[in-house]
User: What shape does this take?
Amino acid sequence: MKDPGKKRGLFNKIVNMRRRIEDLRLRISLNRRTFVIYSILRGLVLLTLVRMIMTRSYEGAAICILSLVLFLVPAAFEEYFRIKIPPLFEGTIYVFIYAAEIMGEINHYYVLIPGWDTILHTLNGFLCAALGFSMVYLMNRNSKNINLSPFYLTLVAFCFSMTVGVIWEFIEFGADYFLMVDMQKDFVIGRLSSASLDPAGLGRPFVIRNIAETVIRTASGETYTIAGGYLDIGILDTMKDLLVNFVGALIFSVIGYTALKSDRYTAITDKLIWRPISRQEQKKEEEEILKRKALLRVRRKTKDDKKENGD
Assistant: This one.
């Protein structure tokens, strides 16, 4: 016989989780433009989730659920760390998540659209540099014992962005090696240089040019032909991703350093750098969230009353 206490505990956890998600959504709604972007993309993800379930693509459904969770992360950061994420930065995060997970993975834009992966990795480098810059800037501003120079602060932000990029490439390599999912996209190249192919066995680079095709023969006798050259297994993709991540991080680092050095923020830095929220702002936000909660409860009650009356 099942324990009713466990059922009640599970039910309470589900209710609390639902309330928590609702609170985060209300926090997102405080900025109208950001909430519009969030609502549109969330609706598109839900439609994709329904499509994945109907086609029994459970891996795609899991990606959709992950995307919905990631949409709530910025609001959770704001609440937990008592900071304010600029609307432009927050909206860009939503677009980035949708472009990477839904359009890139589920709709196969990484394969169908050349350069899609490059664009996202460049944007990732830019956003991670802005994130690292904001984190160090907040610590530097709020600490009496830390006073970093503009150059050092910018350098830390740049290194943070590159570290995130390298860790992501580790994840891609691990997924490809152990799960065989091909996150590191392959390239067909027309030449190669390898010391392993040196006929003299002296370890000198042996160059093969104008490769027309590559034939792969398995132990079971199966044969596969790669037309157009030799199949590079992820090396070029990894280096390209790190390079464009470097470019994105460098662009923001220059912008951030210029703003700190001149002691004034441009329109771009104001819309990208996180800042601490004052007690007055926090109180105002909490009051607004409580008002919206009350309005939401009234709407639900009105809707339930209509159902009971058969309207």
Residues 31 and 81 are 18 Å apart (CA to CA). The first strand starts at residue 83 and ends at 84. The two ends are 41 Å apart (CA to CA).
